Amino acid sequence: MALNHTFDLNHPLLEAGLESPVNEDTVHDSFSQLIAEQSDNEGLSDAFELQQLQRDLDEEGQDNVVRLSRRRHDDRDRRKHQRNEEWEDDERQTDTLMGEQWSSDTLKVLSSMPSRTIGRSRGAIISQYYNRTMQLRRRRQSRPSIRDFSRSARPSIRGYGIEADITDAEGVEVSKRDRLVNNLQNLSVSDRVRMLRAMPLSVAEKSELRRLALQKERHSHSGRRIPCCSQLKYYIIIALRHSWYSWLSFLHSLQLWQVALKRVSGRFGTAVLSYFLFLKTLLFFNLLLFLVTGVFLVLPQAVHPPLLLDGRRRFSGLELLTGAGYFSDTVMYYGYYCNYTLHRSCRDNGGEPNMSVSNGTRLDCVLGHLSYKMPLAYFFTIGVAFFITCIILVYSMSKSFGQSFTIDKSHSILAMKVFCSWDFKVIKKTSVKLMSENIFIQLKELLAEVSYKSVQNTTCQKLGRLMVHGLAWAICIANTAACVFGVCRFSEYMHQNLQQSSRADLAAKNPLLNEASLLAVPVLVSLINLLLPGLFNLAAWMEDYDSPSVPTYVSISRNLMLKVSVLAVLCYHWLGRVAADPESIGLTCWETFVGQELYRFLLMDFIFILLDTLFGEFLWRLFSEKVLKRRRKPVFDIARNVLELIYGQTLAWLGVLFTPLLPAVQILKLFLLFYIKKSSVMMNCQAPRKPYRVSQMTTIFITLLCFPSFLGASVCVTYTMWSITPSTSCGPFRELKTMFQAGKRWVEELQKDNPNLSALAMAHAYLVENPLFLFVGAGIFLIVIYFHSQVVDGQRKIINLLQEHIENEGEDKKFLITRLQFIHEQNRTHTRRVKSQDSSC
């Protein structure tokens, strides 16, 4: 049987420049109409991919299409009645789409479905894009942008007439290819590139078309001679473009720790990578804090140093651990900063220390150059630094919520990773290896998530697991409470010891021993933070969770409970004992003492992290390989390490009021910690035995950093500035009842000098002095975060419903095709029965 095929190049869809129907809903909604059209159509429009199957059915004589189609007109009423009865009575239909020999009617319907006519014919595609290039050539003077064309890349062959002989298809296709190449040659470079990208052809065929177009273009330009000015212009443009791309590549290579993060991701997956990304985020927060305090506090005070009445202490080396001694008389601590207004003219003329007007500054100093009020600068710098950090944290958390709480079903992501994850621009061997390892780990995580199935436990098993979970949590809470109580009692004991030492004047007799004793509380707290998470891991091992990601979240919650409790006790010790009665322990500047305490805690935390890396990872790996003769390495504990980062960052935020240079210490700590942890992970640790994909880990880290950490530090700093009386002999707020009065005095002075600024005084009174404004601002931030999370959650639900609707549409199509096949089988049986009756008669 000769099959005649031709393509109607003047079809309205082609003239409109459409690749497929714009309103595809009409295609899907007209499925019943499509069946009726096929039943009324006496011609045979076979699908290209089903031709051989249709030919086999015709040769075996299993179906007579023409007879069925003619008889269908006569028996339509009778079949409607039968169809209604069969649809009510037949419930035995199953999915017969696999392994079934279809009838010709079913094949015709299948061949006309939109999903079966998408990108199946290369000749149709070439014909379609030939017409589109012709339209672009005709409209060269006033043609629309190529961006206005459809980008679905799903050309349909339903609109093309089928008339030509299939034996001439190759010649027709070659001629159309040549004409398409000619049209592509006459297009501009940008339109040609966009047209080739939009063609649903293979990469090889697109490259061939591009090569032919460029080859003909070179031949056409070979006879022309380009002027020297044009050549020079082209060379300059190419050189500038090459320089611009090289500059962009250089800037991209300057990203911090880019290669190291790729290596970690390729070896250990997204879970371990989330720790290092979080460390990088904390580094940027501390850089911002250090820049603000350094420019507005440290640098002005370093340029105008105050006179030290007692002289500067000698450096003994112990200051690196205790933070006291020599460092006490530097810009590192609160007590070094002056309470007067800085005037450069006063310093240059008299050489005497600059003093504020209220403390007796000379009149010529006041009338000199522009002044810099250090108390006011200190107050507003700390406030602005915390406000900027709050804004960035809220924005980061909101953005992270939107990125992580999205619909990402593992099956669809797995398909995208398999077919679309490779970057063909990567050509270096090392980069190719890193990318392949990264894709391999991601595929393992996705496969583990796809293959994971929740175990259905019986009631007794559920009750047993609930008892085990309760026992584990009881053990963790009891040990945390015991450790917190021990820290509280030990800090009280050390406070009493300092009181006795100050009364007996032991600090003056042996200052080094007195400073070394100050390390006792930081060492105890760091030791608890090192050992107690091991007990939490043991409890998690006893619980034996099914999902590999659940133990990580449980461990995070338990470590968070420990860190928050310890920090609450320490804040009470500093602000409730030391700041309330500093004279009892012989302190003249309690703010400097609290800053030294925070420096010691931060340093001891770093030292114990190094000890844990050395003994917990390196020596354990050597012991396991040399003594136990095992290749098994320890797994990187994400929960404990992340909570250590949050604990250190909380100390940095608490100490920025008392130690303006503490963010610099935190920056150095994070830099060293990144390289130490990265080396330890690559050498001493192994990937998790049960890989799992971490889609919301970064969001949880940012949330914990915002609410327990930053919110707690902000409350403590705000309470200190609003309620606690500062020291009377040191710091920029001496002789003030509270630190907050520095801003209030400045507003009063402005109002006294210029009565027109009374509105500023009222704004300061209602917005800054009134604590209700802070609660309202915090409430607004929380409401914004809540509404954003609700919007994201609503979008997730809508996407879930749409995906279920798509799945139901697919099931409906299967059901309709199965019913069509069943109805055809009934009609064929009836036809055979009628034929047998006619033959018998």
From TrEMBL:
<feature type="region of interest" description="Disordered">
    <location>
        <begin position="64"/>
        <end position="99"/>
    </location>
</feature>
<keyword id="KW-1133">Transmembrane helix</keyword>
<keyword id="KW-0812">Transmembrane</keyword>
<dbReference type="GO" id="GO:0008381">
    <property type="term" value="F:mechanosensitive monoatomic ion channel activity"/>
</dbReference>
<feature type="transmembrane region" description="Helical">
    <location>
        <begin position="518"/>
        <end position="540"/>
    </location>
</feature>
<comment type="similarity">
    <text>Belongs to the TMC family.</text>
</comment>
<keyword id="KW-0472">Membrane</keyword>
<feature type="transmembrane region" description="Helical">
    <location>
        <begin position="772"/>
        <end position="789"/>
    </location>
</feature>
<dbReference type="InterPro" id="IPR038900">
    <property type="entry name" value="TMC"/>
</dbReference>
<dbReference type="Pfam" id="PF07810">
    <property type="entry name" value="TMC"/>
</dbReference>
<protein>
    <recommendedName>
        <fullName>Transmembrane channel-like protein</fullName>
    </recommendedName>
</protein>
<feature type="transmembrane region" description="Helical">
    <location>
        <begin position="651"/>
        <end position="676"/>
    </location>
</feature>
<feature type="transmembrane region" description="Helical">
    <location>
        <begin position="697"/>
        <end position="722"/>
    </location>
</feature>
<feature type="transmembrane region" description="Helical">
    <location>
        <begin position="601"/>
        <end position="623"/>
    </location>
</feature>
<dbReference type="GO" id="GO:0005886">
    <property type="term" value="C:plasma membrane"/>
</dbReference>
<feature type="domain" description="TMC">
    <location>
        <begin position="589"/>
        <end position="695"/>
    </location>
</feature>
<feature type="transmembrane region" description="Helical">
    <location>
        <begin position="275"/>
        <end position="299"/>
    </location>
</feature>
<dbReference type="InterPro" id="IPR012496">
    <property type="entry name" value="TMC_dom"/>
</dbReference>
<feature type="transmembrane region" description="Helical">
    <location>
        <begin position="376"/>
        <end position="395"/>
    </location>
</feature>
